[in-house]
Every structure is written in C-alpha cells, then in structure tokens.
Amino acid sequence: MRAAILIAALCAVACATRVEPIPTDKCAASVVTHDDDRLYVFSLSEDSVVWYKFQKMEGGWSTWRPLADRKKMGSGPKAVRFVDGTLMVFARGTDRKYYSTTMTAENEFSEWKALGDATFSTPPVPVVVASGAVLVFGVNAETHTTFYSESSPITAEEFSFSEFADLGQEATSSPAVLVDAEGLVHVFVRGTNRALWHKGEIYENPGPKKFSEWECIGGVMASSPSTPVSLNGVSLVEVYGRAADKALWHRAQEGTLYPNSLPGGEVSWGKWNSLGGVLASAPTVAVNDDGLADVFARATDKAIYYKAQVEGQDGVTSYTQWFTLGGMFSTTPTVVVHADGLFDIFARGVDKAIWHSHQVETNGTRTFSAWYSLGGHTRKYAC
After folding, report:
1. Which terminal CB of the chain, N or C, has fewer other CB atoms within 10 Å?
2. Residue 298 and residue 22: Cα distance in Å, rounded?
3. CA angle in degrees (0–180, nearest 5) for 184-334-165
4. What's the predicted TM-score (pTM) here?
5. CB neighbour list of residue 66: distance below 8 Å, 6 or more residues apart
6. Predicted confidence band at 234 (pLDDT cuts at 50, 70, 90)?
C-alpha cells in the first residue's frame, strides 16, 4: 500500500513540474495509399516546396514533381485520404499558418489555401473521422496549447473548416492523434514536464460528444508520443515513446471494451513497460491485419530497427527482440500499411534522398526487401 501511495505521489509531482522543452524529432516524408492502394510520397525539398511522387498504374515510380502552386513551407507535409479516395495534404507556411491542398483530378492539386489566421509552432496533424470530416490539430504559437479545427464532410456541397478551438494543455511536442473503435478521437502530447498527457472524446447522454479533461499518464518522454494508425487486437489504445533513457517505452489501456455502452465497464491505463533499445529517433508504430503492432525507429548507428508484437497460444502478447533493417538514415522512419496488412517503410538517407523498403510474404513468412532509393534532395523537418 505504501509503495502504491509513493508511486502515485511521484507521478503527481512529475505531472505538475515544469521543465524546459527538449529537441524535436525529425521526419522526411508523409505517405498515403490511393484508393487503388498505390503509394503517394510527399516530402519537403531543399527549396522549401512540397514535392511528391507516386507509384504508376503500370508499375514503377513517377518522377518527383512540385505540389500545387509551389508555395514555400515552414514545415513538412502531412497527407490524408478520405473514404471517397480524395487526397488532401496539409503543411505549415512560412507565416506559421496552416494550409491545405486537395487532389482535384488525377495528380492535379488545388492551390494552397489557409485554414485560418491562427499561427502554430508545430506541423499540422490531420485525422479523418467516420463522418467524412478531417480534424486538424497543432500547438498554437502564442498560447503553446493544443488547438484544433474540424472540416465539413468531404461530401458536403461546400467544404470548409471551423474556427480553431483551444483544447488547453501546454505542449512540447506535436499532438499524436487516433480514432478508436467507437469513432472517438484521442489526442496525446508531451507536456512541459515531459510526461505524456491524454485527452479523448466522450459521450454523455443526452447530448453530443465532447472532449474530456486532460489526464497525465506519466513517463519522462524524450520525443513525441507515437500511436498506432489503428487500435490493438481488442480495440484499446496503446502509446509508445522514446523515454529519457533513450529506450522504447509502452503503455496500453486495459479493461472492458466500450465502457460507455456496457454497464459497469471500465477502461484504465496499465503500467509503463520498457521495450529496450537505444533509439536516436521517436518510434513509428504500424498495426498489421492481425491487430498486432510493429515498432520502427532509427538507432544510434543510423540504421532502422524494428520489433514486432506477437501473441502466444495463451492469448498474451509480447514483443520480439530488435531486428535491424540496415541503412544509414537521418530521420525517423515513416510506415504505411497496405490493405493486405503489409508494410512499406520510408526514411531520408544521409545522401538526402528518400529510401524505401517494402514487406513481402512468402509461404506465410513476412520479410523486408533491400532498401532502394527514390531519389530527391529533401530537407528533414520537425515531426
């Protein structure tokens, strides 16, 4: 009992103490699949313009081409795909406002358009929700708190964004955002105390959904939080991060699914667990078609490493050892999941080009291809 009280007291102190911000991890590319599962890769060139290339229908890759009207940007791109197949790309301009461009026809994009007059210190973080709208999150440049804007559905006669709303909570990282099995949005940031903070949408009957209060879930994070692009095998949220000891740490929700719809159901956070490693970047997490996560990161030798979540015969999940994919890279890797559950990995090499590896399955065994260059002269940018 005394040990539990002491741990709770230490967490409370950690979640209340302010410390100075720490360096931001660097990324190199945002990658999405088209509705036919072809890949589109967006990156920031040395001229501060977003460029992109894509897989051609007949095979192979296109050349790099500038996106939209060649507007110079102060952050890298973040791309999303709507259910109807529409691609939209977001970036932070040199004026620190958020901008978006939309694919209007095959490989044609509209001019960059500002989402409003608010200014931000972090890149935009967009997420598409079940209604067909996109929510865009970021840390405001003036208040240092988390702001968000919600669009009308992509199918609406007139597509527009709401005014940015302040969710509170000073942050020292870009938000990490996911949508859970009930269609509710979860937001994670690293606070000024380097602990991880969480805020999620909730339903209160009667009435519409709204955001809960922020909760501190502890940790001493050395990088932005990382969340799966989907949920784990039982539809509960998991978060990963690089802690102050440079190891990978993990914390997951535990309890009964759908606490708002099953009487007496409860969801709480389990304890933090170290997954080891000596990381030089934030982790990137992807979930395969079995609902199990693979975690990728750059290590101190500049190679990309990964470890996989596996499920034993007793239903208990654990993690493999770290495996190296080799290479020499300067950024956090970007991972995209195909419809068949296979992964593609992208990272910026020390030669400033974007490099790519893809997963293949042979006789039930999944392996990664050798790295090959997609070319380009890219800039690394804050994740």
Report:
1. N
2. 18
3. 35
4. 0.89
5. 45, 49, 50, 51
6. low
Percentage above 70 pLDDT, the chain: 89
Taking the C-alpha atoms of residue 193 and residue 172, their distance in angstroms, rounded to an integer, is 9
The token pair that represents 113 in the structure block = 């358009």
φ and ψ of 37, to 5 deg? 75, 10
Counting Cβ atoms within 10 Å, is residue 282 exposed (0-12), middle (13-18) or buried (19+)? Answer: buried
Gyration radius of the chain's alpha carbons: 20
Please give the torsion angle defined by the CA atoms of residues 64, 67, 70 and 74, in that order, rounded to the nearest 10 degrees: -100
Distance CA 15, CA 35 (A): 43
> How far is CA 215 from its chain centroid?
20
Q: What are phi and psi of 376, to 5 degrees?
A: 95, 155
Distance separating alpha carbons of residues 338 and 239, to the nearest angstrom: 21
Tokens matching residue 58:
């007949």
- Inform me whether the pLDDT recorded for 24 exceeds 60: yes
How far is CA 121 from its chain centroid?
17
